[in-house]
Amino acid sequence: MTAITALVAFHTGGTADDVSEEAAQKSSLPVVAVRHIAMATDFELIIYGNYEDEDPEALREYGREAFAAVDRLEDEISIWRPGSAASRINRDAETCPVKVPSDMITLLQESQKFYDLTGGVFDVTVGPLLELWGFYRKEGKLPGEAVLEKTLASIGLKYVHLNREESTVFFERTGMRVDFGGIGKGMALDRAAAVLRHQGIKNARLNGGSSTIIGLGAPPGKTGWTVDISSPYNSDAGSSFATVTIKDEAMSTSSASERYLEIDNVRYGHILDPRTGWPVANGVISATAIVPEGLASDALSTAFFVMGEEAVRTFCNIHKEVRCVLLVESGAETKVLFFNFEDEHVKETR
Predict the structure, then answer these.
(1) Which helix (H) or strand (E) holds 245?
(2) Nearest in space to 208 (alpha carbons), one of 50, 30, 67
């Protein structure tokens, strides 16, 4: 699973300090902004208190507790930390069952759920393909047909055996590896949101990088958190092509416009189709998923990018609880498609 890099510009505007100042002027409730760097990206929390005399320092402490949960998750899932559960799985699971924390078993079970739900399009075992194409070392090389076929034999969550009772993971094929980069930020925000809810926070905005957001409740006087989806062609302020509102929901956007390799003057995006081994080229240039949880929004936004317009339409017709926004390019035409929205707001298409 690859990292999600499409930009999401928050309609509430500007930096965290800007948001806090504006919000403080409009509401008598205390509000704080807390930032943190994890998973090689910037995390930001905008936290509202529940009553006027609530101590802002207590809100900041809740934010620090939330970020501590993010850091613990990164220690568990990072493939770049030798002692992490993910690294131990990648190193040893093809030779023997690897004992891991129960949280990792739960995470892999969730991953398998979305693997099955999307017909194998969402797949956290796509790591060998990312390595083959050169996305890890950031030096692209067009793979030959034979080596691509060999690598594809190592792809597939159906070849990952989980033993819940023993809390072990085993790879049924050699050369396999897991990579949680594509759902890491969503998982992190889920954990952070759980901490804030435990502390009684009802209204907060949590964003991981510029592509994943969770909106708890709503800002004072609003029905939800208003979010602009930025154009992959232009990430400048005001370049959004759609606006949505979320409340007690997570939202993720996938695009290959910022992370790519150039090989022989051809640009290849980082989102790969695990069925073919090739970067996606189906006309979808931005895919947004809105669901209750961050892991799910991350998984589905990438899956939607890979699936393409018609498959997404079919999926959303079946799963009415899932909202989706696609930006699709077909020849000279660019269109914005909304699925399962009652109220649609299109700001710009290019």
Answers:
(1) strand 240-246
(2) 67
- Whether residues 151 and 27 share a domain: the answer is no
Q: SS3 breakdown of the chain: % helix, strand, coil, rounded to 5?
A: 35, 25, 40
CATH number at residue 295: 3.10.520.10
The answer to whether position 176 is within a domain reads: no
Q: How many CB atoms lie within 10 A of CB 221?
A: 7
Are 87 and 69 found together in one domain? no
CB 324 within 8 A of CB 304: yes
**95 shares its domain with 206:** no
**pLDDT tens sequence across 217-246:** 999 999 999 999 988 876 555 578 999 999
pTM: 0.90
31-59 average pLDDT score: 96
201 shares a domain with 93: no
Specify whether the CB–CB gap between 27 and 196 falls below 8 A.
no
- Is residue 281 in a domain? yes
Tokens of 285: 């240039």
Which bin fits 40, alpha (ψ -120 to 50), beta or left (φ > 0)?
left
Instruction: Assess contact for 255 and 285: CB atoms under 8 A.
Output: yes
Please measure the distance between the N-terminal and C-terminal CA atoms of the chain and give it in whole angstroms: 28
Measured distance CA(308)–CA(326) in Å, rounded = 9
Number of domains into which the chain is organized: 3
pLDDT tens for 178-207 read 999 889 999 999 999 999 999 999 999 999
| Distance from C-alpha of 305 to C-alpha of 273, rounded to nearest angstrom | 9
Q: If we measure between CA atoms, which residue out of 188, 197, 193, 191 comes closest to residue 50? A: 197
Do residues 52 and 187 share a domain? yes
Same domain, 73 and 193: yes
Say which residue, 119 or 263, is predicted with more confidence. 119
Whole-number Å distance between alpha carbons of 257 and 254: 9
Q: 109 and 257: one domain?
A: no
158: containing domain: 80-171
